[in-house]
Structure formats: C-alpha cells, structure tokens
Amino acid sequence: MTGIASRSQLRHSFLRYALFTVPAVLLLGSLSGQLARSGYGNPWFDALQKPAFMPEGWVFGAAWTLLYILLGFALAMILHARGAKARGLVIALFVLQLALNYSWSPIFFAYHRIGLALWVIAAMIVLTLVLIVLVWRIRRVAALLMLPYLAWLCFAALLTFEIGRLNPDAEGVAPQAPATDIVL
Q1: What is each CA distance from 155 to 53, 60, 90, 149, 160, in whole angstroms?
Q2: Which of 30, 108, 35, 133 is nearest to 72 (CA)?
Q3: Domains of the chain: total
Q4: What is the pTM of this model?
Q5: How far apart are CA 168 and CA 9, in angstroms?
Q6: 1 domain residue, yes or no
Q7: Helix 57-80 and helix 7-35: axis angle, to 10°?
C-alpha cells in the first residue's frame, strides 16, 4: 500500500501500543512492589519513624497505579512516533528510568538501603527531567503525562530523605518479634 495511513488507522496503531505498554508498566511496577513487600505491613518499614507528612498507605497504591498508567500511555505515544528524531534514545532512556523505578522498592523495602534508595530516586528524577525535555520534541502530550510522575518522584525523594534522617540506623532496625506469651 502506497497511501498515507488514515486517522483511524493511526489511532488504532496507537491503541495497539497502549494495550501492551499500559498493562506492562503497571504489572511490572506492581510486581516490584509486591516482591519487595512495599509499604505499610512490611515489618521493617513499620518499625521506622516516619515524617509527619507521610501519607496513609492507600495513597501510595492509588498514586502509583495512576502514575504507571500515565507512563504506559506516554511510552505508547513514544513508540507510536515512528520516524521521530532521537526516538531510539528516548525509548532506551525511558526503559532505563523504568528499570531504576522498579529497583527502588527492593532496594528500600527488601534490602533496607535508604541511602542507596535516595541515590536511585535522584537518578530517576534527573532521567525523568531529561526525558521530559526529549519527549517534548516528539510528543508534547506524552511529556505532559510525565509531569505528575516527576512531581511524585520529588515528593518520594523528600520522604526517603526524611525517613533516612529520622532513622540513621535503619539498616539495623529489626522489627519486634510477636510475643509468644499467653496472656490470661
């Protein structure tokens, strides 16, 4: 076929990407959090002192679900932008940023490495800033979809910093074992 694709064909092409990227980004993010036993309910995390501005647990689940959906759509838009200058570089940086994102929960919640987690989130912020600039040149809507993610990363970095400050010995914190005494 030598003709240019119709709007309908282009829309369907984007939707095919989105039907893959949105669930993939969301599933991998959820899997990373579950394998690391992220959030409240993790005995180590529950034993730490938290800053006064720490949100309730449900906020994190809702925020990350929304952010992963937005990232999935942004990735679909980038993948759909065939022929865009620097598209390959943007895709590689996007995947690198997602890999850092997915590594954060195990580093923080499973390995209890708050300092390393802070460096990882700082790298994520820098990569996301670079990506927003590069993606803006390809698909402005995709770049705008990444702004809430950048804002949340900054908030998460502040939380990580404060948890580290409040718990300088966090790596050695061991949760209290449940009592085995029988109380009558």
Answers
A1: 10, 11, 24, 10, 9
A2: 30
A3: 1
A4: 0.84
A5: 56
A6: no
A7: 140
DSSP code at position 184: -
Range of the domain at 49: 8-168
Segment 63-105, tens digit of pLDDT: 999 999 999 999 999 998 888 888 899 999 999 999 999 999 9
Is residue 93 included in any domain, yes or no? yes
Do residues 118 and 154 touch, judged by C-beta distance below 8 A?
Answer: no
For the record, the structure tokens of 35 come out as 């394998």
- In this structure, what token pair is assigned to residue 54? 């720490």
Q: Considering the domain boundaries, does residue 155 fall inside one?
A: yes
Q: Which two tokens stand for residue 3?
A: 């003709």
Give the tokens for residue 163: 């948890």
Under 8 Å between Cβ of 69 and 23: no
Q: What sign results for the dihedral spanned by CA atoms 60, 61, 65, 68?
A: positive
What is the distance between the alpha carbons of residues 29 and 147, in angstroms, rounded to a whole number? Answer: 18
The total number of residues written for the chain in this structure: 184
Which tokens in the block code for residue 70? 């937005």
Amino acid 1: pLDDT:
45
